[in-house]
C-alpha cells in the first residue's frame, strides 16, 4: 500500500465511524437524547464556529493552555539540563520526583483553588504542574543520550563546559525536548478543559461543556464541544509533529552507540540509598520547621498531615490490615473503580491493538478515528457518560476505561506492526499456527510498547478516577473526600488526601515497572 492508499483508507474509516454513529441514532438503537445523530452534532459544531462567545471561550482555553505549557517548558528545560548534566544531583532529587510525578494534577484543584481562587492563575498553575514532567524527563534522557565522543572532541580543542553544552548537548537533546513538549501539549489541553469543567463559571471550552450538561437536551452541545476539543488536540499535535519532523529530520537517523553509553551512565549514577532519599527528607524537614515557625493555615506541618492520614485511614485493627471504616469509604472504592477501568482498558486495548496492528489496511482504516479519540481530553467526555450512565460507579468505571484504552490500543498496534517480517516468514516456513505466531513472535515483540501504553493508561486511570469523584453526585472515594474537605475548609484532610494519592501513584507505578522488568527485562 502507498501513502495515498493509506490516506484513502483513513478517509473511508472515518466515514464508516461517522456512518455507524449516525445509524445507531437513526435506527433507535440508542435514544437520541443519549446519542444524537452524528450529522446533527457535526452541524452544531460547524454552527458554533460562527458563535462569537464560543470562539472567545476557545481563545480563553487556548490562552491558559499556552501560558501553562510555556511556564512548564521554562522550568523543565533548564532543570532537566541541570539534572542531566550533574548525575549526582539527579540521583539525589530522584525520590522527590518519583513522589510528585504520579500525583494527579486534578487532585490539586481543591488545594490550589483555596490558595489562588478560581481564576486563570489556578488554571495556569495546574496546567504547568501537569505539563512539567514529560519535558523534564525527556530533557534528562536526551542529555544522557548525547554522543560522548563529540563532547570529548570539543574538550580536546579547548572548549569549555558552556560551549560544549551549547554546541553539542543542546542540539542533541533538542529532538527529545520537542517530543516532550508534544506530549505535554496534550496533557496541558486535558488540564485546561478539566479545570474549566470543575469550576463551572467564566469562559472556556470546558465551561461550555459543563453548562451544556446541565441544560435540557444539552447532549448535542456536549458532543459538539467534544468534537471541538478533539479537533483542537489533533491540530495542536499535527502542528507540533510537523515542526518536529521539519526541524529534526536528522534525529531519526541516530543509531548505535547510545545504548552502550546509557548503560555506562546508569552505572556511574548508582548512589547509596540514603543519598537518593536525602533531598526528600531534607525538604520535609525544612517544611516541618517552617510550618511550626509560621503557623500557616495553608501549609500544616508534614508530621501532622501524616498523623492525620494515619488516624483517618490506617489506625484500624491488625485483622483488617489496619484499615479504618473511613478507609472503606475512601480508599477501597477508588481503588476498585480504578482497577476495574484499567483492567477493561488493558484487555480491550491489547486485543484490539494486536488485531488492528497485524493488518495494514485495518490500521489505515482505524488510524484517523484512533488519533481523534486520543486527542479528546478525557474530562470532556465525562458529561457524556453522566448522560448515558447517570452518576455512580458504572459511569466512573466507563469513563476511566474509555479514556485509558487509547494509549494501550495505539501502542499495541504499533508494537504488532513492528514485528520483524523476516521472523514471521520463518514462522510461516516452519508452519506455525496463527496462535503460535501470536504467542511466540508478535506478543514478545510488542511487549515493550504495550507496557509503555500501560504506564500511560495507569496515569490516566488515576487522573480520571479522581476527576470522576470530584464531580457532583459522588458519595465516596478519594476525590469526594477532597471536595468535601474543601467545602468544609478542612485543609488538613485535603493535604492528607494528596499525600495518599501521591503514595498510591508511586506504589502503583513502581509495581507496574516491576512487572515490566520481570517480563521484558531491565531497560537501558
Task: Write up this protein.
By secondary structure, the protein is an all-alpha fold. It is built from 21 helices and no strands. It has helices at 3-26, 38-48, 52-85, 87-100, 109-116, 120-144, 148-156, 161-199, 205-214, 219-247, 258-268, 273-294, 302-313, 325-357, 360-375, 378-389, 393-417, 421-429, 434-470, 478-487, 491-520. The longest helix is centred in the middle third of the chain and has 39 residues, at 161-199. It is globular. It starts with a helix and ends with a helix.
Short structural description:
This protein has 21 helices and no strands. The protein has helices at about 5-25, 40-50, 50-85, 85-100, 110-115, 120-145, 150-155, 160-200, 205-215, 220-245, 260-270, 275-295, 300-315, 325-355, 360-375, 380-390, 395-415, 420-430, 435-470, 480-485, 490-520.
User: How many β-strands, per DSSP?
Assistant: 0
Instruction: Give the helix tally.
Output: 21
Rounded to the nearest angstrom, the radius of gyration is 24 Å
Query: DSSP strand (E) fraction?
Result: under 5%
How much helix, percentage-wise, in residues? over 70%
Span between N and C termini?
Answer: 35 Å
- Main sheet record: none
Secondary structural class: mainly alpha
Oligomer designation: single chain
Q: Provide the low-confidence segments as ranges.
A: 253-271
Mean model confidence by pLDDT: 80
Shape: globular
What is the ordering of alpha helices and beta strands?
A: HHHHHHHHHHHHHHHHHHHHH
